């Protein structure tokens, strides 16, 4: 399979399998769905597409700063968080990149696009992928840039802000730049115990990446931001398209960050469904289920005697798409990932697995 394949490619799956509809457990999107306020704002502002969007999304930067408690002059907004990864690597041109793995494949792809050599430090499966921070720190020397997801995709590994600061400080002392991907942090009610966003005011080697499309269910619109020091931020602005974020994405971001009711209900609903799906999956003796921290669950299916690709094919016959995780460095052909969906959809997955694994 393609090394950089992602979930969520529904048109391709439906065409290949001749399906009219599909339940998508392959992409980790807020199961609470699109905010009615965002949908209304997009419809109300549809005529704005005859005008250029605000360059550099200045108003949205201010709203992000207000919402996350950081300075607006340390923020850059992107056409999805991934765009900013590529621009960053283009600017820094690292020679050696260290990736905490298993991890999001675009870290490697962006680093390779800038000519970097790729090194991995593996989260230990024997430790439920919750490796001590010291096991990561000892690998920093000799690398120019480090990529780490917190919470990490696909393992769900979550480090405290204290552990993360140890990593960042050690990296700074060794001349290593640190990219912390917090794309799933909004799902965590107690995010202040884990987010390193406030540390951009303290460290010059820190780049915090944040998606706004996963929590606000906007993956088709593309919207994300990053926070970092001026030494990196200024070249980033010079390297990107000034209109890289379209007008509808900008208005959606403004409305999303103001919708506190949606934020609160999303966290409550999602946490309920995370717990429910985890407990249901735990009832299958043939599944090794890793405890989730956010809206996806990693599972080892080796005891089923099926590969991830075989289970994926069987579930597609039920109209269910899942993520085959064999292309993640550090995982093999027996790992899959289930996104957390609505209660009805989660039950459909459990029913299908019950029949398949009987």
Automatic annotation (TrEMBL):
EC number: 4.1.1.81
Source species, domain of life: Bacteria
Presence of the UniProt keyword Magnesium in the record: no
Catalytic activity: O-phospho-L-threonine + H(+) = (R)-1-aminopropan-2-yl phosphate + CO2
Domain Aminotransferase class I/classII large: 21-353
SUPFAM superfamilies registered for this protein in UniProt: PLP-dependent transferases
Entry function: Decarboxylates L-threonine-O-3-phosphate to yield (R)-1-amino-2-propanol O-2-phosphate, the precursor for the linkage between the nucleotide loop and the corrin ring in cobalamin.
Matches recorded under NCBIfam families: L_thr_O3P_dcar
The name this protein goes by in its record: threonine-phosphate decarboxylase
Source organism per UniProt: Megamonas funiformis YIT 11815
